[in-house]
Amino acid sequence: MEGVRYCLMQLEDYINEICKDTPSWEIILKTVGVTLILVWLKGFLFQDESLFTRGKKTVFKLARKIPAVRNKIESEVAKVSVSMNETMNKSIDYAPYITKLPADGWKYDHVIDEAAKYTRYGHYNWKEGCASGTVYNYNKSLTDLTTEVYGLAAWSNPLHADVFPGVRKMEAEVVRMCCTMFHGDAKSCGCITSGGTESIVLACKAYRDYAINVKGIRKPEILVPVTGHAAFDKAAQLLGMAIKHVPIDPVTMKVDISIMKKMISSRTCMLAGSAPQFPHGVIDPIEEIASLGVQYDIPVHVDACLGGFLIAFMEEAGYPLAPFDFRVEGITSISADTHKYGYAPKGTSVILYSDPKFRHHQFFVTPDWPGGIYATATIAGSRSGGIIASCWAAMVYHGLSGYVELTRKIVETAQRISKECSNIPGIFVYGNPEVSVVSFGSEKFSIYTLADAMNKRGWNLNSLQYPASVHIAVTVLHTQPGIADKFISDMKEITQDLIESPPKVEGESAAMYGMAASIPDRSVIGEIAWVYLDAVYSTIGAKKQEPVVSNGIKNPEE
C-alpha cells in the first residue's frame, strides 16, 4: 500500500512539473479534448460488432460505389428477381391475380369454389409425407374438429376477456397444461403466442427488461448457440440488444459449454439452449447451461419450439432423455410450438416461465394513454380467439395417450431413417439426432445436389449451411406405411448415382448455395432474400412459356 501511495505521489509531482508554466485554460481544453477522444475511441473499438466485421462491411460498402461493381450486382439481383417471380407464377399455373375488389360481392358457392382452387395449387403431395416438417399431422377427424371449433370462436378476441370469458379460460388451460407437461410447479406461468418467433422475442424482452429494471444492467446482451434459431437474432434487432453466438462442437453439433462460460460477461442477461436445435436435430447440454445460469445468476431459456411436444412425451414413449425442463434448477423459461407436434392449426405457440416475476417484464403496460390503461401480455393487441380455441381443441382431442403414441411412431421412424442412412456410402448423419430431425452431409459430392435429385422424386427437404447439409423433420405423415422405406430407398439410389456419375451441371439448390457461399459480401445475400420476399407478395403475372414443338407434336414433358 505504501508503494502505491509513493507511486501516486511521484506521478502527481511529474504532472505538476509538466503543467507549472501552462495556462489553466489550456490545461482544461487539452483535458476535455483528450477525454472526448478517449470516449470516441472506446465507442469505436467496443461495439456489438467487432472492428474486423465493421471494417469488412465498410470495404464492401465502398467497393459497391464503383460503377462497374454496382452495375454488376444490380444486374445479377435483377436476374434473380425475374427468376423468382417466374417460379412463383409457375407454382400457380400462371393464373391471373385479383388486384381490386370485385364490383359486386361473389356468391357463397363461388367463393368456396375459388378458394378450393387456390388450395390445390402446388406440385408437392404433402399429405403423403413428402415434405420435411411443414405439416405435422393431417387427418379428416382432426381437421373437421379444429375447423368447427374455430368457427364457434371465430369472432372472439381474448383482448376483451370480459366479453369472451370462455376463450380466456381456454388460453389459461392451454398454458397450465403445458406447464404441467414441462413439470412446472404452481408458480409456473405463461402465454399463448402467434408462433415460435414471438415466443422467443417475448422471452428476450422479458429478460432484457428484468436485467435493466432489477439487476441494473444498462446494455443487456443474450448468449445463444450458433445453431440457435434465427428468431433470437430477430429479437436482438427488434429490441436493440446485443447477441453473442457460441460455437458448437463440430462432432456432436452441441453448443460448446467451455466457450459459453468464457463468453459470459456482466452484461449477459440470458443464456439459451435448444431442445432440439433446428439444423441437426441435436439437443444442447441443457443441464450444463442451467448450471452456468445458477452459477452466474443468469436466466436460462430452453428453446423447445420445434420438438417441445415430442420431448415432453419421449420418456413415456420409451425414449428417455436427459432432463431439459423445469425439473432442472436454473431453467427459467421454455418455448414450445403447439402448432408443430402439438398438431394445432398454424398460429400458436407457448412461452412458459418458472416464476411470474419474469412474465411481468414480458407484459406491455402504458397507464397514461387517453384511451384508458392499456395492457397486453404479448406483442399483438387483438388476437384470434378462434385459433386459441382450435389449439385447445387439438390438445384435449389428443390427450396424453394420443401424444405419447404419436411420439413413439415419429421417434421410431426418425431413428430408423438415421440408422439406415448412416450406412449409405457417400453420406453421413450429423451428430446424434435424438428426436425427429435427421441431418445429412457428404464429403463425396455437394449435398445440395442430392437435395435437388430428391426434389425431382417429390421430396421437399430443408437445405442448410455452415456446414453444408440437408435435413428431414419427421412428422406423423412420415409414419404412414411405406413412406420411410421409400425415403431410404431413394437416398440410397440417388447417392449411388451421384458417386458413379457426378452431374456435369449443378441443380438449382446446389447452384444457389454454392453461389451464396462464394460471395464474401453478405449484404448481397440479404438483397437476394429481399427479392424473394418481394416475389412472395408480387401480383405481377408472368407469361406462360409455350411447350417446345417438334414435327408439330408438343413435348410430352410439358
**Mean of residue pLDDT values:** 90
Tell me about the biggest sheet?
A: 7 strands, mixed
Radius of gyration (Å): 28 Å
| Proportion of helical residues | 40-55%
What amount of the residues lies in strands?
5-15%
Number of strands: 15
CATH class of the domain at 147-397: Alpha Beta
> What coarse outline follows from CA principal-axis ratios?
globular
How many helices? The count is 18
CATH architecture of the domain at 147-397: 3-Layer(aba) Sandwich
- Secondary-structure content class: alpha/beta
Oligomer: single chain
> Low-confidence parts lasting 5 or more residues at pLDDT below 50?
547-558
CATH fold descriptor of the domain at 147-397: Aspartate Aminotransferase, domain 2
Write the layout of secondary structure elements.
Blueprint: H1 2-19, H2 24-45, H3 51-63, H4 67-90, H5 108-119, H6 140-152, H7 165-181, E1 189-193, H8 196-213, E2 221-225, H9 231-239, E3 242-246, H10 257-263, E4 268-274, H11 286-296, E5 300-304, H12 308-311, E6 331-336, E7 349-353, H13 356-362, E8 364-366, E9 374-376, H14 385-422, E10 428-429, E11 437-441, H15 447-456, E12 462-464, E13 469-473, H16 483-500, H17 508-518, H18 522-537, E14 549-550, E15 553-554
Parallel strand pairs: 2-3, 2-4, 4-5, 5-6
Antiparallel strand pairs: 1-7, 6-7, 8-9, 10-11, 11-13, 12-13, 14-15
